[in-house]
Amino acid sequence: MDDLFINYRGRRHSFHLPPGWRLLTFADFEARETVPDIRLLVGKALQEPVGTPPLPSLAGPRVRVAVIVEDLTRASPKKIILETILETLRGCGVPEERSVIVLALGTHRGLTKAEIEATFGPEMPARYEFLNHDCLAADLVPAGSLKNGFPVKFNRRVMEADIRIGVGSIFPHPMNGFGGGGKILFPGVADFEAIKEHHFHYTFQEGTALGRLDGNPFHEEVCALARAVPLHFIVNGILDQNDALAGVVAGDPIEAHRAGVEICRSLTTRTFDRQADITLTTSFPYREGPQIIKPLIPVSRITRPGGSVILAADCDGTLPEPFIASFERFRKDYGQDLFEGVRDHFAQRRLIMEEGAVDYNMALAFTLAAQHQFRIILVAEDIPRRTAERMGFLYAPNLEEAFALCRDRGAPPEVHVIPSGGVILPQLINN
């Protein structure tokens, strides 16, 4: 096949498989012919919400509103969505000073003033109060608990509001099934210890899985907290396989989310006949820090145990030294029993990266679990060879050298190629 490509380093990178290699699946998707009018989609969703009355019936001049907005790890049109929500609130008579925008960071880093203005423009931050959620803040408010009784605290400004509105994105998610919905509240504006307890308790439990909602205990806890606190209203963008907006849903955080999930599922699902010897994938659309390993989760479904994964990754900035050192320390401690080591840490609620954020620990856990099953070759011009090797990867500066590392492993391999690895829901036909 002559027109193979991957989305790598901001462009379509064309390549050829080595002679004799058999392509099983080229998991590309047809590009949409028209670009949607985002403001029109948001306006229509607000006028026709799922499971709730329209927003104007919930708000009024004396109402305090907290709009909880996802951070920069998603490429959704947050500015236009937020502008439209705030215009609607002003139309309901809600004064600007009675609305606060809280950035739902979970345990991620805070946004700088420059990043906020670059994302939302200079006008909104000048008119409205923007706050980074701090999962370690001293004034977090207790509000409910996990099913095992572990208490959960939430952002004080969010809890002081009469109406809580969540702005997020629906896309395949490795633990919650899909992003969006109640995740903007929990873990978005919750405390560190509760997020750790929830993620460590449920991540490797039966039912917690990419693309699954029903019978998913991780997701069920998120929904239960969205109901209990409550989260009153969501506006969620639906992302396609190219991380572009394909639709918008609004309304009840569970019912509207499920409606959006069905659309997202139809856009991102790709079928595979069987597991391959080698899967070539990319980190697209992820570029920041630990996010770049997320594509290892879907490819784990479609690569045979003992096979190889080639991950072509873009990485903005540098990976922190404690993150890299944690790989070395863990591999030294557990040798070939990487997955058992991960399960042991999670069962005991022990951080793999000491004093590290939960997202870094989740990245460590999923990477180590994948390395237990597969031989992983990292292609990354932004990550030095020594860094990749300290993390337990084989390293190749380009695809040709990655292919060379696979040539001496027996018969010519069967291969899956996934041009955009971060937004895909793989389905094995014979599984």
Largest sheet: 6 strands, parallel
User: What is the CATH class name of the largest domain?
Assistant: Alpha Beta
Low-confidence segments? none
- Tally of extended strands? 20
How many independent structural domains? 2
* % residues in beta strands: 15-25%
Distance between the termini: 27 Å
CATH topology title of the largest domain: Rossmann fold
Rg on CA atoms, Å: 22 Å
CATH architecture of the largest domain: 3-Layer(aba) Sandwich
Overall mean confidence score, pLDDT: 93
The CATH homologous superfamily name of the largest domain equals LarA, N-terminal domain
Relevant terms:
single chain; alpha/beta; 14 helices; 431 residues; 2 domains; 20 strands; Rossmann fold; six-stranded mixed β-sheet; 2-enoyl-CoA Hydratase, Chain A, domain 1; six-stranded parallel β-sheet
Q: Can you tell me about this structure?
A:
- This protein has helices at 38-47, 78-91, 113-120, 123-127, 156-160, 192-202, 217-228, 255-268, 296-302, 321-334, 338-347, 358-373, 385-390, 399-406; strands spanning 4-8, 11-15, 22-26, 65-70, 99-104, 129-132, 141-145, 151-154, 163-170, 172-173, 177-178, 233-239, 245-251, 269-272, 276-282, 303-312, 375-379, 394-396, 414-417, 425-428.
- It is built from 14 helices and 20 strands.
- With 431 residues, it is an alpha/beta fold.
- 32% of the residues lie in helices and 24% in strands.
- The mean pLDDT is 93.
- A hairpin with a 2-residue loop joins strand 1 and strand 2.
- The strands form 6 sheets. Strands 3-19-15-16-17-18 form a 6-stranded parallel sheet, sandwiched between helices.
- The chain has 2 domains: 4-30 and 273-428, Alpha-Beta Complex (2-enoyl-CoA Hydratase, Chain A, domain 1); 38-267, Rossmann fold (3-Layer(aba) Sandwich).
